[in-house]
């Protein structure tokens, strides 16, 4: 059952990214995964509370995060992954998660989300959860967005 909870996050990511970028999207397959987060990625983490407790984490390469943030800023090219670009990708994760939780709510599952936290490199705190599911979403010419569901 927990593995199916990640599907609305994938669907929502496809919808939101289709609006924000003009690249082709190719979803991968949901699979069980190790709960650890790669230190070479930028991770946007959102806590999930309610019928399911845990986190959803969106991982992407810093260069990809910068390109997506630039697209979200109307094509204004950002050169650094600074506070502005971090805010943009955090808002992206917030939009994806909010839409996914609405889908889950329509299916009778109540889940609230917390504000997103952007972590990378030395600021990355590894999750305590033991159960994890992952699905990749390839954004043509940009890279792969990893979506991880971490269950408490």
What does this molecule look like?
By secondary structure, the chain is of the alpha+beta class. It has helices at 2-20, 62-72, 83-106, and strands spanning 25-27, 31-32, 42-50, 54-60, 111-113, 117-120, 131-139, 143-151. Strands 1, 2, 3, 4, 5, 6, 7 and 8 form an eight-stranded antiparallel beta sheet that branches. The protein is globular, with a radius of gyration of 14 Å. The two termini are 14 Å apart. The model has no long low-confidence stretch (mean pLDDT 93).
Which tags fit this structure?
single chain, 152 residues, alpha+beta, 8-stranded antiparallel β-sheet, 8 strands
Summarize this entry quickly.
By secondary structure, the chain is an alpha+beta fold. It has helices at residues 2-20, 62-72, 83-106; strands spanning 25-27, 31-32, 42-50, 54-60, 111-113, 117-120, 131-139, 143-151. Helix 1 (2-20) crosses helix 3 and helix 2 packs across helix 3 (83-106).
Given the structure, what is the number of helices? 3
Q: Which regions contain 5 or more consecutive residues with pLDDT less than 50?
A: none
Work out the number of β strands. 8
Distance between the termini: 14 Å
Q: Major sheet, described briefly?
A: 8 strands, antiparallel
How would the global form be characterised?
Answer: globular
- Strand portion: 25-35%
Mean pLDDT: 93
Fraction of helical residues: 25-40%
Radius of gyration: 14 Å
Element order: H for helix, E for strand: HEEEEHHEEEE
Q: Briefly note the structural class of the backbone.
A: alpha+beta
């Amino acid at each position: 059952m927990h593995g199916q909870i990640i599907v609305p996050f994938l669907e929502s990511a496809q919808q939101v990214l289709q609006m924000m970028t003009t690249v082709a999207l190719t979803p991968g397959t949901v699979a069980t995964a190790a709960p650890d987060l790669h230190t070479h990625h930028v991770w946007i983490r959102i806590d999930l509370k309610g019928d399911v407790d845990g986190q959803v984490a969106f991982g992407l390469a810093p260069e990809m995060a910068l390109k997506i943030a630039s697209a979200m800023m109307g094509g204004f090219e950002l050169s650094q992954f600074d506070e502005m670009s971090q805010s943009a990708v955090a808002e992206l994760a917030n939009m994806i998660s909010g839409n996914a939780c609405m889908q889950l709510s329509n299916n009778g599952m109540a889940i609230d989300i917390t504000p997103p936290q952007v972590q990378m490199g030395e600021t990355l705190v590894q999750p305590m959860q033991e159960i994890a599911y992952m699905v990749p979403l390839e954004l043509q010419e940009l890279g792969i967005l990893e979506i991880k569901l971490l269950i408490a």
